[in-house]
Amino acid sequence: MPQDTLNVALIGYKFMGKAHSQAWLKVGKFFDLDAQPVMKVVCGRDGAAVGEFAERWGWENSSDNWQEAIASDDVDLVDISTPGASHCEMALAAAAASKHVFCEKPLANSLEESKQMLAAVRKAGVKHMVNFSYRRCPAISLAKQMIDAGEIGEIRHVRCTYLQDWLVDPDFPMNWRMRAESAGSGAHGDLGAHSIDMARYLAGEIDEVVGTKKTFITERPAEGTSDGLTATAGEGTEKVTVDDASLFLAKFAGGALGSFEATRLAPGRKNHNRIEINGSKGSLVWCFESLNELEFYSTSDPGTQQGFRKILATEGDHPYAGSWWPPGHMLGYDHTFTNVVYDLTQCIASGKDCSPDFQDGAQCSAVLEAVNDSEKSGSWAKVEQIA
Ligand code: SOE
Q: What range does the record give for the signal peptide (predicted)?
């Protein structure tokens, strides 16, 4: 039902909690909205810490009881920014209380849970969105427009690499991201999920995959305290139960071939989320480390002038960019989250469906799981297509 305010309950207040909070704070300042988000309540396990967070980030209330917050009549949208293991329970509770649901990626730690979440939001008739934030980089939205307009022709190759180096030091202590029971997987679900989503967005569905994963550092210093990506060491050591790296090949339904590499052990690569797409008429290349730039090669350019041109997606006509700063002024990581909650708010206000939604999240889980199946069987695995 269309509405003019949107009361938000955020669950989680670490790295993603901050990223989401700054987006909710800023979205109404930079964008014209059909509904005004109200930062009603932020939830977390440590009552004192979440209380301080609420004050710092402008949430009206804080709570150490997310179930109560979700049930409150004062809440329209539940924003889930916790580790993957809790997504399903929270989304099911939100849907049962007829609340719209916004959820961090990957949608869940298993395909089975992702499907349960999709079924629940559909049954409840609420809006649902998964936070594949990189889709909202202006350069990526522009790439999508260019591909849809036929600028690079028929897609033949999709080359995705998502490389980080924050775990290269074997003395980096454990945190939830290295435990299967909280994160589900390592680089595979954390980073690979972004690449899979971007590839699906730009090049269509993936039919079949073959791949493998590897944990290079199998034991690490135990966790002392942690905040997002950083942690201090505690006493003793703990076994790492997720992958450090994942690698797979893909066959796309539209005929393209793809390769996907995700790792947290690539020295020098900080947030190297890169995609290169080669089509029959040209190529597009983007990397998050220069997120405002889109490289474009066109076979239609005069022969003597052919070469990759660098488009700076910072002009008023570029997607989202016009709502921020005057032309030529760069956007960063935080802006992508604000662009996401802008679209989410507008969809809820107007009654339109959100994108990417839980179907996209579940389809991404299906690809991740097919890679696991392939690893077990040692052969190509079909990707389940989620209706
Ligand atoms: C850590 O690897 C991480 O923060 C991911 O969890 C995010 O999804 C990605 O955007 C940046 O890296």
A: none
Tell the residue number behind the tokens 């629940």, with chain if given.
120
Q: What is the pLDDT of residue 224?
A: 87
Q: CA 196, 197, 200 angle in degrees (round to 5)?
A: 85
Ligand 1: list residues with CB < 6 Å: 164, 190-191, 229, 271
* CATH number of residue 56's parent domain: 3.40.50.720
Residue 339 has pLDDT above 90, yes or no: yes
193 CA distance to ligand 1 middle (Å): 10
CA of 135 to the centre of ligand 1 (A): 14
The whole model's pTM is what? 0.97
Of 15, 191, 242, the residue with max ligand 1 atoms within 8 A of its CB, to mutate for a pocket test, comes to 191
Whole-number Å distance between alpha carbons of 24 and 130: 16
Q: How far is the CA of 306 from the centre of ligand 1 (A)?
A: 36
Measured in degrees and rounded to the nearest 5, phi and psi for residue 58 equal: 85, 25
Same domain, 49 and 164: no
pLDDT (average), residues 176-199: 98
Q: Which of 90, 114, 134 is the last residue of a domain?
A: 134
1 pLDDT more than 60: no
70, 181: one domain? no
